[in-house]
Each structure stands twice: as structure tokens, then as C-alpha cells.
Amino acid sequence: MDRQRTRGESTSTMKEKTAALTDLYGDDDELEPECVVEEAGLAADFLLHGREKEIEQYMIHVRKHLLEGEGETIIEIGVPISTSGTGPSTGSGLSEEELERALKAHEAVLKKVPAVGTVIETRKAPNGKCTCVLLVRDPLSDKDFIEMRVAVVGNVDAGKSTLLGVLTHSALDDGRGAARTKLFRHKHEFESGRTSSVGNDILGK
Question: pTM of the predicted model, to two decimals?
């Protein structure tokens, strides 16, 4: 039963993704020839022109990659976008002033997607041309949260449990191990004053 349920849920998820991707392009019969996504793709400076057809094409590109990337994708501003996936990208890079304008235009486009972009790094080529790499994600809802797991390892008496006790309970240690006692889970730990098990503690809300 569990295997059948898992297989059914997986099939349902795939159907939802397929339907979402299909909705991006709509009915081909309803599209005018000039509205169909061209194989030539988008130039590196397309955001500077603000042409409606190019913006719509780029929005489809972003949504497609968000669906394929489970809600997140990497975008590089200032690099040509090839929709055919073949051939080298030429004409990469923008001037610093052009890149600043492109980022402002890109922010406006993401609001329409909708999506949220975070700058990761700005790359500068020897010829002075620049590109900007962004992490683009679906907007977070009230039910979503981002979880980050951090492992704390070290030698005996290094202060691992004391550090975690202070961070997770917002209470300073009294110099006699009061902070680490907040992480004790077993009787022998309280008796010996040392943690002897692997634990998971939550930091933040």
C-alpha cells in the first residue's frame, strides 16, 4: 500500500508539473507566428530595451526553470539566453551603468512572474564588461520556511554543548556548565555533567 501510495503521489506531482509547463505556452493554435518563442533566444542587453515580446519570452523562461528547479533557479544577467540550447553564447557582458539599469528592469519583471531574486555575485571580465548572478526563488508563503542544518563537532571539553545551550536558549553560561545542562536528555548525562548523545536543537523561529 505504501509503495502504491508513493507511486501515485509521484505520478500526481509529475502531472501537475506537466500541466504547469503546458500552461506557460498555452495553445499553439492561438498564438500568432511572431509570438512563438524564437530559437534565436534573447540578447544580453534585452532588458535594456523593454520590448514586450522579449519580456514575455523571458518570463516564460524563468517560470519554466522555477518549475524544473523545484522553486529556485540561477539566473545570470548580461548573458545571452539561447532557447534552443545549441551554439555558443556570444556578446556577453554589459557596462556597469547598463548592468545597473538591467537589474532594475529585472526586478520589475520578477514581480510579474512572480519571483524573488537575490544577488549572489557580480562578475567582471578583463574587457570591463560585467554580469550579475542571481538566485531566483518562488515567493515564500506563510506555510513555507527555509531550514539550514549546521553540525557542531569538536574535541572533548571544547565547549560544543555550552555553545549550543547559549545559542538555543538565549542564556549565558554561569561558568559551571549551566548552559550545557539545557541539552541533557539522559539521567547519566545529568549525573556526569557531560553530553554523550547526538542531539538536534532548533535555533531561531
Answer: 0.55
